[in-house]
Amino acid sequence: MQLMTVLARMLEYPTTELQAARDDLVAVVLEDSRLPRRHKEQLLETLDRLCAVDVMDLQEAYVGLFDRGRATSLLLFEHVHGESRDRGQAMVDLMDTYRRNGLDIDARELPDYLPLFLEYLSTRPWDEIRPWLEDIHHILGLLGERLYQRQSHYHVVMDALLALSGRNADRQALAKLVAAEARDDTPEALDKVWEEEMVKFVDDQGSSCGQGEMVGQRRRELDQVQVLHLNDPGQPA
Length: 237
Description:
Distance between the termini: 24 Å
Radius of gyration: 18 Å
Number of helices: 13
Number of domains: 1
């Protein structure tokens, strides 16, 4: 499904290549037969905005939105089950699903990175895509509301995915929930997270002499973020 590729591109770090591909992306949105007209119009408006703004300004805004704090993280496993270490096995299972269906990924992104997940879905038939989207509809709804309340145009991508999932979100309940959340992207919140991770790192080093050094934020997250059990539609639940 080509629309999945377009949505993946829109959620990736903005580049001049994205802007150069505007006409092709617009054509895919216009030709899609499953997305309701209202969502198509919103996607087209967002594509125009992404392709009209200076790319460096887009990149700065993108980092501030998606890379500070976890509330709007594009790593799906961030948003489920607290800080369970079960995420490692979930990563392996999802990676196996990708490989079993012919998608090999490099080391730049974790397998639960939403644009990568959408890239995988773009290779699958619709009768597999929809169950996958249904499986994460609660995350899509929450992300969409958080992005909306932060006045980010990226919320329309989550809204489109939610529409394709066939599941409705309780907008009033989500709005109240998100409005009551403490922001995790403020300097104070980021300092607190950094301090907590440093304490954990020191404790881990003191209790396990076999551990190596940390090799960056993404590596740390493998042990710290949450698990989401995505059921492979081709396998029994």
